Every structure is written in structure tokens, then in C-alpha cells.
Fold this protein.
Amino acid sequence: MKLFNICDEYIENYVYISSQEAKKIMDTEKDIVILDVRTQEEWEEVKIEGSILIAHYDLLNFVEKIILDKNKKILLYCRSGYRTKIAFKILRYLGYNNIFDFGGIIDWPYETVKSK
């Protein structure tokens, strides 16, 4: 399906924010979702405090069961920023409209935690 082709140059209403902007939102807003779209194994190694995990390949099957409010602010991250673009497209396709991509955890200059 072309909708999820990462090579597309245009993503409708795509919003990228810096790590600094994402951290400010995390520190000042309460009703947000920090969504990690990496694999379970990656998430168990290191994650951002308060994040939830739904691997990008599981979004179509699970996100609507976990994030019920399609207007909720969602901050997306993965390892390098590639999978967040795929996740953004899937979330837009499903009707979510308050999505912000802040790239990869490899560029996250703030504290992280181990899941185990």
C-alpha cells in the first residue's frame, strides 16, 4: 500500500519537533502519550521515562485499543527517526491528528531508563 511508503516526500500535516521541544512538552503538559515505536527488545534495553511501546509494525492492530482519544497529543520516537515517519503515516491514516515526531532516542540528550 503506497500510503505507508517511507519514500514518499510528502506526509500530510507532518510535524517534526526537536528533542528540546519534546522535553519541554513532557515537562509541562500532563495529558500526552510518549509513544516508542521500536521493538520490544530495543525498548527493554533503554527507553524514555513514561513512554509506552507499540512497535511500528503493530500500530494498525493495537493503537486504537491503547490510545482511545484520537485528539490526544502523541510524541513519537524510535531509534533513529526512520520508523517514526512510518508510524506518523499510520496514525494519520487511522485518524489521529495531534502527532509530533521528535526523531530517535540516539539523539535524545536527556535521561533514559532501562526497562528491566
The longest strand covers residues 73-78. Helices lie at 19-28, 40-45, 59-66, 82-93.
